[in-house]
Each structure stands twice: as C-alpha cells, then as structure tokens.
Amino acid sequence: xxxxxxxxxxxxxxxRFLRRFPSVRSLARARRQDVLKAWEGLGYYxxxxxxxxxxxxxxxxxxxxxxxDAKAIRALPGIGDYTAGAIRSIALGHNAPLVDGxxxxxxxxxxxxxxxxxxxAVRARLWEVASAILPAGRAGDFxxxxxxxxxxxxxxxxxxxxxxxxxxxxxxxxxxTADRVPTRxxxxxRPVRREPIALVPRRGRILLRKRPDEGLLGxxxxxxxxxxLRGQGSRLGAGEAVGTYRHGFTHFSQVARVRRYPDARVGPxxxxxxxxxxxxxxxxxxxxxxxxxxxxRGGT
Length: 300
Ligand code: SF4
What we know:
Elements: H1 7-20, H2 24-29, H3 32-39, H4 46-62, H5 70-74, H6 81-91, H7 101-110, H8 120-132, H9 139-152, H10 171-175, E1 192-194, E2 197-199, E3 201-202, E4 205-210, E5 221-222, H11 226-231, E6 240-248, E7 253-260, E8 272-275, H12 287-297
Parallel strand pairs: 1-7, 2-7
Antiparallel strand pairs: 3-4, 4-5, 4-8, 6-7
Helix pairs in contact: 6-9, 7-9
C-alpha cells in the first residue's frame, strides 16, 4: 500500500483491509471484486491484484506461511527486487539490500554518479554498492534509514546538506553538484488516450462493465466504452452529449467524451450489469466512473 502513497493516506485503508482480510488465507479465499473494493481510493490497483495473487501463491505453494527463501519470495506475484529487499531486510531480518528511488538518489550523490539512475548499468552499480555497505545484522534499520534520508534530507531538488548525517562521505556535496546529481531523465509529455464512454440507462438503472481481470484497472467496474459495446454487437442509437471528463494516470491522460444513449439495445454479455446508480458504491469502480457519476449527481 505504501508504494507511491503517503503513510497518512494509507493508515485507515491498512486498518480496514486487515479487519476485512485478517489472514493470508482469508485474502487468498476472497473474491477479486471484494479485494478491489477494500482498495478503492488508493489507486494503482495493480498492487491490490498482485497482493491477492500473492496471497493465493503463499497458500498454494507454501501452505499459508510466507516463504523465507530469497528465490521463493522473488517468485511471488508482484514482488520485484525492491519489495523483496524490503520484506527480507525489514520483516525477516535478512542481510538484504534494497534500492528504491530515494536510496538510488542518495547513493548516486554519495558517489557523484551523474548519469540518470534509470540507466541499467547505473542501477546495477547502485545495487552492488547498497549490498557492499550493508551492515550485517542491521539491514532493516539501515535500509529504512537510507529511504528516510532520501525522503526527508537528500530530497530531489533541495538537499539539506548542512544537516545531513552522511555529509562527510558525500562526493557530490564536496564537488558542489548535489542538486544536479543524478541527472534527471527528460520528463516526457504524457500521451492522451481518448475513449468515448456510453451512459445507457434502463428503468432507473445504469449499465456498467467489468474490466478484464488482467491489465490496467483489472476487475474494476466502469461506464462502458462505446467501442466495447459496439464490438460486442450492441446498437447504441442516437446519443445526447453529457460532457467531457479527464483522468490522469502515471503514463497517460484519459479524456472521455460521455454521451447518453437512452434507446440503446445491448446484447447479452457477462461483463455487463445494470446497476442502481445509488448502489454504485458497493462495487469497485474506476476513478473516472466515480468522477462522472459525481458530476451527474451534481447536475453538471
Ligand atoms: S550531503 Fe547532501 S547530497 Fe550528500 S547525501 Fe547528504 S543531503 Fe544528499
């Protein structure tokens, strides 16, 4: 939950999630829809899906006990090098290094590495260094301290070098290049994806579509894209313009022109469901769908 999200935001979700799924077995048994619902509002839903898959794998492959072996941990769904390092060092007390964005920046500055930390060779070097300087038996504390240093002192734009506890070992500070190291890769403009959305009412209900389990926002519910309905054989008929709504993702922006199709004839489809708009909140719905329904309720 903490990946890409602040602690204060996460705490209530974390508590609610643990009440709802108090053990790895209860999470493994849960329906995807209920897991996504408990996650709703935190964003990056891939993490929820991975956690669910991870719980299933722990139950199926390891009898419900989280594995201790580095390879077995890394083989669990959704666990990459960083997460494996965090779990092993902090939760299991292993001498395992980790490099997240904050640690990468701190190390690059300590060594005055100018090239972008996204560069593969630089990344590999940083992992080597993180491993070499790891104090045996204190890896969890050390890794947390490094992440915290990057988050609070050695920040991207304005590193607070005078109050930094590792200043005397820092090459970038000595060279006076701290705020220019590492070089940031040029920010690319986010591409725009346009996707017309259909509002199809029927006897006080509204049509929703469940997204495929795999891929972006997997298993979440949304007002269906027009192209999806046409693709499965629905006839939309004449539409009335409702408005245009935007939502930003990490790698692209979504722009949705919304139209209402009161006369649509919708073909049978297990991914589609007619829902009372007042109970929309019972399903895990996408942010864009929440935005659109909130705007409609507000009469805009
Ligand atoms: S001295 Fe400055 S640049 Fe070096 S690690 Fe500390 S805060 Fe970062």
